[in-house]
């Protein structure tokens, strides 16, 4: 293989390998969450959320979904941040994965999901404390 071809192919292989190793926390429509891979400090992780898990607060306007679901998360009991786990195509809302990056040295990840709509309805998963907690490897 020529050095030019290696220079093009090697970064692609490394990037593909890194993506394949990104851990995933899945929240199915019902039941407990599952973790595929190892959650590590200083690395990215993906959150997949089934929208049927949180069915309240689903207002529409002129046939268009006017609600959103976010994952609210924090590392080591710090400040909550958020990322969308929904997007919209035409008039319909659908699930999208959220990518979070754990800070170097982080030991815990806590998260909850928030659904709200244009009618000021707000709902959470879980609906009360404690929230979902995960341990990160160093």
Task: Summarize the structure in words.
It is a single chain. The protein has 138 residues and is mainly beta. The chain is 13% helix and 43% strand. It has one helix and 13 strands, in the order H-E-E-E-E-E-E-E-E-E-E-E-E-E. The longest helix is centred in the first third of the chain and has 18 residues.
- Biggest pleated-sheet summary: 5 strands, antiparallel
Structural class: mainly beta
Hey, roughly how much beta strand do the residues contain?
35-45%
The Cα radius of gyration reads: 18 Å
**If you average the pLDDT, what whole number results?**
89
Record field, number of beta strands: 13
Q: How helical, in percent, are the residues?
A: 10-25%
Residue stretches low in confidence (pLDDT < 50, at least 5 long) are 12-19
Query: Given the structure, what is the number of helices?
Result: 1
Order of helices and strands: HEEEEEEEEEEEEE
Distance between the termini: 38 Å
Shape: elongated
Short synopsis of the structure:
This protein is mostly beta strands and 138 residues long.
Can you tag this structure with a few keywords?
single chain; 138 residues; 5-stranded antiparallel sheet; 13 strands; 43% strand
Fold topology:
Elements: H1 3-20, E1 24-27, E2 34-36, E3 44-49, E4 60-61, E5 64-65, E6 67-75, E7 81-84, E8 86-89, E9 92-95, E10 98-101, E11 108-117, E12 122-125, E13 132-135
Parallel strand pairs: 1-3
Antiparallel strand pairs: 1-2, 3-10, 4-5, 6-7, 6-11, 8-9, 11-12, 11-13
């Amino acid at each position: 293989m020529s050095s030019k071809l290696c220079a093009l192919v090697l970064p692609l292989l490394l990037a593909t390998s890194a993506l394949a190793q990104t851990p995933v926390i899945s929240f199915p429509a019902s039941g407990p969450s599952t973790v595929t891979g190892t959650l590590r400090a200083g690395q990215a992780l993906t959150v997949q959320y089934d929208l049927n898990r949180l069915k309240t607060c689903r207002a529409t306007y002129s046939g268009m979904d006017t609600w959103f679901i976010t994952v609210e998360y924090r590392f080591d009991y710090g400040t909550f941040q958020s990322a969308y786990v929904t997007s919209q195509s035409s008039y319909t809302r659908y699930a999208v994965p959220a990518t979070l990056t754990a800070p170097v040295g982080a030991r815990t990840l806590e998260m909850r999901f928030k659904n709200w709509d244009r009618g000021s309805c707000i709902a959470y998963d879980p609906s009360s404390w404690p929230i979902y907690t995960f341990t990160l490897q160093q």
